[in-house]
Write a structure and sequence with these properties.
Elements lengths: L3 E6 L5 E4 L6 E3 L26 H10 L3 E4 L23 E3 L4 E3 L5 H10 L3 E6 L6 H12 L5 H8 L10 E4 L14 H18 L4 E4 L12 H10 L5 E8 L6 H5 L2 H21 L7 E9 L4 H4 L6 E2 L10 H16 L4 E7 L8 E3 L5 E3 L3 H10 L3 E3 L2 E3 L2 E2 L7 E2 L1 E8 L4 E8 L6 E6 L6 E9 L25 E3 L2 E6 L3 E9 L1
Parallel strand pairs: 1-22, 3-4, 3-13, 4-7, 6-12, 7-8, 8-9, 9-10, 10-11, 11-13
Antiparallel strand pairs: 1-17, 2-16, 5-6, 14-15, 16-20, 18-19, 20-21, 21-26, 22-25, 23-26, 24-25
Helix pairs in contact: 3-4, 3-5, 5-6, 6-8, 8-10, 10-11
Bound molecules: alpha-L-arabinofuranose.
Amino acid sequence: MAARNARMVVDKDFRIGKVDDRIYGSFIEHLGRAIYRGIYEPDHPEADEQGFRKDVLELVRRLRVPIVRYPGGNFVSGYNWEDGVGPREKRPRRLELAWKSIETNEIGLNEFVDWARKANSQVMLAVNLGTRGVDEARNLVEYCNHPAGTYWSDLRRSHGYEQPHNIKVWCLGNEMDGPWQIGHKTAQEYGRLAAETARVMKMVDPTIELVVCGSSGTGMRTFPEWEATVLEHTYELVDYISLHTYYGNPENDTANFLAKTMDMDRFIRTVVATCDYVKAKKHSKKTIYLSHDEWNVWFHSHEGDRKVKPWQVAPPLLEDIYTMEDALTVGAMIITLLKHADRVKIACLAQLVNVIAPIMTEKGGKAWAQTICYPFMHASLYGRGFVLQPVVNCPVYDTKDFTDVPVVESVAVANEETGALTIFAVNRDLADVVLLECDVRSFEGYRVVEHIVLEHEDIKATNTATNPFNVVPHSNGNARADGGRITATLPRLSWNVIRLQKA
Ligand code: AHR
C-alpha cells in the first residue's frame, strides 16, 4: 500500500466563524413514510400515548437536532394548514398532488410541535406560497405565536394549546423556482409575493425570522439571477435565503461523486456573492445569511419511485438505502457547510426518517441508523464552537466534472467552553491511506481523546433491518499528539473524527 501525505495547519486565532447550532437541523415532510409509519405509528409496541414511536424519538435525540423544518418540501405548496388542526374526526382526507398520495391529516401542526418538543427540537415552519399567500400566512403566524384574545389564537387555545408555540423561523414557501412546484412562479412574481407576505407576517410577530426561497440547485437555469431578483424585492424584509443540494452517483463513478462538494462550495460562494451584490446595490447595512435547508445524497430511490402506485396513504417513497460511499459524501458536505460557518446559519439534512433519511423504520418492527447517520451525528456532537480556517496541503486529482480535488477534505472546530478541539477529515483516495500531519502549536498541551473512523472494505456496504450494524464507526484510529503536532493515518475512503482535549 502506498501512503500519501497531507499537511494541515490549525491555529486558534484563524477563525472562520462560530457554528450556529442550527446547521445540525433536519427536515420532516408529509411525504412517504416520514410521518405516518415513521415518527408516528400508533399501533407499534414502542408507541407513546400520542402514537409517536419512542425508539425513533430516542434515535433522533441522539443526533441532537436543534431544529426541524416542516411540513414541506413540495408538499407545503398545496397544503391547507387548517386541515391538520382541531378535532381529528373532522379533518379531511385530501389528494396530495406533490407526491401523488392521500393525506389523512391525522398529524398536523400541533401534533408535530408536540413531537418536536419530545425530540428536543424547535420547529422551522414553511408557509404555502404555491396555492395560497399573504392571508393564510398571517393567520398561521397568529395561530402559532399570538398569546390569546383573537380569532386565530383563541382557535389554537380551543384546540388544547393554551400557550403559543412561539415558532421563530419561517420559510416563505418552498423551491418556488422549480417548474415541478405547485404554483411555481417567476422570480419577479415570487419576489413580490414573498415581500408582501414577509411584511405582513412580521406585522403579526416582529420577532420572527424569515427564509426566502433561493434556487433549488446550481443546475437551475435561473440560478443565480433568481437570487438577485428575489432579494431585490425582499432584502430588507427577510433574514436568510435558502439553498438546496442533492447529489447522486447514478454513473457509479466514486471519485467524481466524492468530489461533488466542490459544486456545493461554489453554490454557497455564489449565493454569498449575490447577497452581497444586492447589499451593495441597495447601500444596505444588513447582511443576509444562508439557510441550506435541504441537503443530502438522493438518487437510489428514483427508479423505484416511478413504479409506486399513486393515491396511497404513506407509500414507500424516496427510501434511499445508503452506502458507505454516501456517508463519505455526506461527511464532505458537512465539512463544506462548516467551512462557511460565517454565512451559513441554518442547514437541514433532508430528511430525517424513512424519506432520504439517516433513520429507517420497519412497520411494526425495528428502527435503525443508516450509514449517513454517523458523520451527521459526529458533527452534531463534536462540531460545535468556532470553525478554524484549515490550511491543507495534500495531493489533488481530476474527475469527469472537477479538477484539483483535494484528496483530504478537512476542517477543525474549537469549543472554548469545553476546551475541545475536533478535526473532521474525509480521505477521498480510492486506494491509499493518507498520513495526516497537523500543526496544532496554538493548542499547547492537547492530547488525543479519541480517533473515530468510519470505513468499510466494501464501499457499497449498507445497514439494513437484518444487518443494522454492518457499517458502524470504531474508535481504533491511530491519531497521536506530540509537541504541538498530530499525526494520524486516514484509511482509504474513510470519515475521521480526531477529538482532542487539553491534557
Ligand atoms: O426532500 C425531498 C424534496 O426535495 C422536497 O420536497 C423538495 O423541496 C425537494 O425538491
